[in-house]
Amino acid sequence: MDMEIITVKDKSFKPYISEEDLQASIKNVAIQINADYKGSEPLFLGVLNGSFMFFADLLKSVDLECKVSFVKLASYEGTSTTGKVNELIGLSESIEGRDVIIVEDIVDTGNTLVKLHEILSKGNPKSIKIATLLYKPEAYKKDHPIDYVGLEIPNAFVLGYGLDYDGLGRNLSSIYVLNE
Ligand code: IMP
After folding, report:
1. Of 98, 111, 154, 173, which has the fewest beta carbons less than 10 angstroms from its beta carbon?
2. Distance (Å, rounded) from C-alpha 105 to C-alpha 25?
3. Is the pTM of this model over 0.90?
């Protein structure tokens, strides 16, 4: 495992969360989900791009009958009266009456999570819960509950295991933090 200081583009990052600690926290999330969704057939909805590694490792420890799908939140400028418009792309199946579990890489301000929730609610699912690998409580500005959290971290910029800096670093198997 690479546990050295690394440089990505113009910034330096130091090792922060080991692969071992990540995997242990993911197992813990899977145990909770397995217990909570026994007898249900949930739909795991991975939010691309950042969640791909967490999604894969989490699902390997989920022992429920379940479906998986991926979405992407695209944001574009609307007209001057509507402001920023958010569109969910990739969801081809109906979520009506389903138990949906949103799988995110990190919850920071909570804007993404709240928008996703808003859009998905229109599809009349039975329930929507959120599972995130990382959560920054100091940065969180919403009061929406976050149901499953891998690890809480302070308000710092992290990289690796799906998370990027300017599109790079997603392939690292552990988490690094900006070296300031
Ligand atoms: P939120 O909408 O502010 O909660 O931000 C969520 C999104 O911002 C995540 O899905 C990430 O793509 C990105 N993000 C937030 N914090 C970090 C970080 O520390 N490193 C890399 N990406 C981050």
Report:
1. 154
2. 13
3. yes
